[in-house]
Protein backbone atom coordinates (compact mmCIF):
# COMPACT_ATOMS: atom_id res chain seq x y z
CA UNK A 1 0.00 0.00 0.00
CA UNK A 2 1.37 3.40 -1.03
CA UNK A 3 0.47 7.00 -0.36
CA UNK A 4 1.10 9.46 -3.18
CA UNK A 5 1.16 13.06 -1.92
CA UNK A 6 0.41 15.72 -4.52
CA UNK A 7 0.82 19.48 -4.06
CA UNK A 8 0.00 22.29 -6.46
CA UNK A 9 -0.56 26.02 -6.47
CA UNK A 10 -4.00 27.58 -6.83
CA UNK A 11 -3.17 28.76 -10.36
CA UNK A 12 -1.92 25.30 -11.35
CA UNK A 13 -5.12 23.74 -10.01
CA UNK A 14 -7.27 26.16 -12.01
CA UNK A 15 -5.29 25.42 -15.19
CA UNK A 16 -5.03 21.64 -14.83
CA UNK A 17 -8.07 20.43 -12.86
CA UNK A 18 -9.67 18.57 -15.75
CA UNK A 19 -6.41 16.97 -16.84
CA UNK A 20 -5.53 15.97 -13.27
CA UNK A 21 -8.94 14.42 -12.57
CA UNK A 22 -8.80 12.48 -15.85
CA UNK A 23 -5.36 11.23 -14.86
CA UNK A 24 -6.55 10.04 -11.44
CA UNK A 25 -9.25 7.95 -13.14
CA UNK A 26 -6.53 5.86 -14.83
CA UNK A 27 -5.19 4.53 -11.52
CA UNK A 28 -6.85 2.28 -8.97
CA UNK A 29 -6.50 4.60 -6.04
CA UNK A 30 -8.56 6.57 -3.58
CA UNK A 31 -8.21 10.17 -2.52
CA UNK A 32 -7.87 9.87 1.24
CA UNK A 33 -7.14 13.52 1.96
CA UNK A 34 -7.53 16.84 0.23
CA UNK A 35 -6.90 20.23 1.75
CA UNK A 36 -6.89 23.73 0.36
CA UNK A 37 -4.57 25.97 2.31
CA UNK A 38 -5.31 29.69 2.98
CA UNK A 39 -2.87 30.69 0.22
CA UNK A 40 -4.72 28.46 -2.28
CA UNK A 41 -2.15 25.66 -2.31
CA UNK A 42 -3.76 22.22 -2.61
CA UNK A 43 -2.40 19.17 -0.82
CA UNK A 44 -3.90 15.80 -1.75
CA UNK A 45 -3.14 12.23 -0.72
CA UNK A 46 -4.00 9.18 -2.82
CA UNK A 47 -3.83 5.61 -1.54
CA UNK A 48 -2.64 3.27 -4.29
CA UNK A 49 -2.10 -0.49 -3.90
CA UNK A 50 0.46 -1.26 -6.61
CA UNK A 51 3.99 0.19 -6.49
CA UNK A 52 4.14 0.48 -10.28
CA UNK A 53 0.92 2.49 -10.32
CA UNK A 54 2.18 4.70 -7.48
CA UNK A 55 5.39 5.46 -9.39
CA UNK A 56 3.54 6.13 -12.65
CA UNK A 57 0.97 8.35 -10.90
CA UNK A 58 3.76 10.32 -9.23
CA UNK A 59 5.52 10.81 -12.56
CA UNK A 60 2.34 11.94 -14.32
CA UNK A 61 1.50 14.38 -11.53
CA UNK A 62 4.99 15.85 -11.69
CA UNK A 63 4.61 16.34 -15.44
CA UNK A 64 1.87 18.93 -14.84
CA UNK A 65 3.18 22.47 -14.48
CA UNK A 66 3.55 23.53 -10.81
CA UNK A 67 2.51 20.09 -9.48
CA UNK A 68 4.85 18.12 -7.23
CA UNK A 69 4.37 14.57 -6.04
CA UNK A 70 6.13 11.93 -3.99
CA UNK A 71 5.10 8.58 -2.59
CA UNK A 72 5.73 6.68 0.61
CA UNK A 73 4.79 3.35 2.11
CA UNK A 74 1.64 3.15 4.24
Task: Please describe the topology of this protein.
Elements: E1 2-8, H1 10-24, E2 29-36, E3 42-48, H2 51-63, E4 67-73
Antiparallel strand pairs: 1-3, 1-4, 2-3
**Beta strand count:** 4
* Percent of residues in beta strands: 35-45%
Largest sheet: 4 strands, antiparallel
Q: Please report the number of helical segments.
A: 2
Biggest β-sheet: strands ordered side by side in the sheet? 2-3-1-4
Q: What is the helix fraction of residues, given as a range?
A: 25-40%
**Which radius of gyration do the C-alpha atoms yield?**
11 Å
The CA-CA distance between the termini, in Å, is 6 Å
What are the segments in which pLDDT stays under 50 over at least 5 consecutive residues?
Answer: none
CATH top level assignment = Alpha Beta
Q: Just name the CATH architecture.
A: 2-Layer Sandwich
Helix/strand/pairing class, anyone? alpha+beta
What is the CATH homologous superfamily assignment? ACT domain
Mean pLDDT: 95
> What is the string of helix and strand elements?
EHEEHE
Shape: globular
Counted up, domains total 1
